[in-house]
Amino acid sequence: MLDNCIFCKIVAGQIPSKLIHDDDDLIAFHDINPAAPVHVLIVPKQHIATLSDCTENHVALLGKMMLLAPKLAQQLGCGYEVDETGKAGGGFKTLFNTGPDGGQEVYHLHLHVIGGPKPWRGQR
Ligand code: AMP
Ligand code: ZN
Fold it and tell me: Whole-structure pTM over 0.90, yes or no?
């Protein structure tokens, strides 16, 4: 845990969050400033600053983060679905911001899951 890291503090329960998932490796909670009707962050419990700091040692963790995204989207009502006629509906965006030019504000790795009607028309 990094002392001055806001997401480490959320992981430790020192700062409140609207938690929607908690397992051995990851938590997920609602973004405090949502860019779309559904906007959650998937956060590893381990402090890793950015995607660029990930190595081969983090392959399984990153895979877990990616696989959790559609599950949470489904749970929150923005899952991707194809009906019996073949018509596709729903869906969500997944996003890692990395570094200043990538728009990263919190330097603890997190995956944005952004859903609802046309979330790509939002600010991100
Ligand atoms: P990024 O720009 O990719 O670093 O995204 C950081 C995200 O964290 C932003 O969307 C913020 O709204 C969100 N955020 C910052 N502080 C909190 C908090 N205490 N609880 C929930 N979300 C937060
Ligand atoms: Zn941290």
Answer: yes
